[in-house]
Specification:
single chain; 432 residues; alpha+beta; Hypothetical protein af1432; five-stranded antiparallel β-sheet; four-stranded antiparallel β-sheet; 15 helices
């Protein structure tokens, strides 16, 4: 079974729930207010609307997002141990050192081709909205010394992982949108998206992706418990305060221990996400292969999102500048192959980033093409004079090269450097 195969379930309209994806009616779509390609129920009012037109409908169980699901998602259809090169890369990157010698069996997953952005976006929005609510609740709990409920975290991250498995592009698109929001809330969500996209690219099995997601959302829980301003600039604080900031990792892990949080992979990722390959990290200043692979991955995601986000003490960097800064730390801060793999997973121009074309137009990257990493799918946002377009056209950058006057991507553009709004763009499902 592929990840895009439809599993239809017949449901009486009186039993419809928020998160169900209606793929077929008991009548023709014509004459109803619903879109013919399917309809995701987002509110109770949406479900009530179906009672006016139908007696029963058919639900696509794969494309539905159920709130409060308590059973783990079933990924048994995914092929395993089918990419020797993926297994070899995980070995080189230090998979076995993630959690000690007991992890002796190496499993790699050959994930199916990602579905396009527009098809996944409605489900992704619901999943990430749940995660955002969770982060706000976790921050409040940390500040009031209330325990973390691991089951609550599991319920929120499972739909997120499922969404990223289906479409990394949707996760990166929403991360780009969140960079205009409050950093303390958006940062853990964006790190979660980045590390999951990275983990999927490397072939980590879903069970580990769940742990990685939890580690990302909780990595700064110790910072949330500090009395001073959240995410202060550690370069401009007193030495005593700097020491307190460096202790936030261990303080956060102690808080999780008191909360009976038991996911060892998530704990290890949190412990090591500020450690560095050359030993100049914290809290334990370990070096080399003693820094777990998941800790390195989370550290990269942490740094990349921080560079690409507006902070109280610096403006957001362009994607190109962030890439150069991180590349400059190869084999010092992180191993070179881990850095290379991270940017391979995101693409040269990550989904959600804005780029300027040689013809003058500005476009948003709406999807990656594995066969052509330098030429992703684009949505044109402006004309050659920089004026916003009223209708957005989605194109593949590779086709621009085939025109009479070839057009190329010149550079990435920082969100703050333009008045163009990514949140005004509505990606469309492509006609194939």
């Amino acid at each position: 079974m592929s990840s895009t195969e439809i599993i239809e379930l017949r449901v009486d309209v009186s039993k419809l729930q928020v998160g169900m994806y209606v793929c077929r009616l008991d009548r023709d779509w014509i004459g109803t207010p619903f879109e013919m390609q399917g309809y995701l129920i987002r509110t109770p009012e949406d479900s009530q609307l179906f009672t006016q037109y139908c007696e029963h409908v058919f639900i696509d169980d794969v494309r539905s997002v159920y709130v409060g699901r308590r059973s783990r998602p079933n990924y048994s259809h995914l092929q395993r141990l089918v990419r020797p090169e993926a297994i070899a890369r995980l070995e080189r990157l230090g998979y076995r050192h993630m959690r000690g010698p007991e992890r002796t069996v190496l499993i790699a997953v050959d994930y199916p081709d990602a579905i396009e952005l527009a098809k996944e976006l409605p489900r992704a929005q619901i999943a990430w909205k749940q995660a955002k609510v969770l982060v706000a609740r976790l921050i409040a709990r940390a500040k009031t010394d209330k325990p973390v409920l691991e089951e609550e975290v599991d319920l929120a991250v499972e739909p997120v992982v499922e969404s990223v498995v289906r479409s990394p592009d949707a996760a990166l698109w929403l991360a780009a949108l969140r960079r205009g929001e409050s950093y303390p809330t958006s940062h853990p969500l964006n790190c979660c998206a980045l590390v999951l996209v990275f983990g999927r690219f490397l072939g980590f099995p879903p069970a580990i992706l769940l742990s990685m997601a939890k580690g990302a959302l909780l990595m700064d829980i110790g910072m949330w418990r500090l009395n001073q301003n959240y995410y202060v600039n550690s370069e401009h604080v007193e030495e005593d305060a700097k020491g307190e900031i460096h202790e936030h990792v261990l303080r956060g892990l102690e808080y999780l221990r008191q909360s009976s949080f038991v996911d060892r992979d998530a704990i290890l990722a949190i412990l090591h996400h500020h450690e560095r390959w050359d030993g100049n990290g914290y809290p334990r200043a370990v070096r080399g292969i003693k820094v777990s692979l998941m800790g390195q991955m989370l550290g990269l995601a942490d740094t990349f999102d921080a560079l690409c986000s507006k902070r109280s003490y610096h403006c957001e960097e362009t994607i190109n500048t962030a890439q150069k800064i991180i590349y400059s730390g190869r084999d010092e801060i992180w191993p070179a192959e881990v850095v290379e793999s991270f940017f391979q997973s995101l693409g040269v121009y990550p989904t959600g980033s804005m780029v300027q074309l040689s013809s003058g137009e500005i476009a948003a990257v709406s999807g990656q093409l594995p066969s052509s990493r330098l030429y992703p799918r684009l949505i044109l946002l402006s004309n050659a004079q920089g004026l916003p377009l009223t209708e957005f056209e989605e194109i593949e950058a590779s086709k621009l090269l085939q025109s009479g006057a070839p057009v190329k991507i010149v550079k990435t553009v920082a969100r703050a450097a333009t008045t163009l709004r990514l949140d005004k763009v509505e990606p469309k499902v492509r006609c194939v």
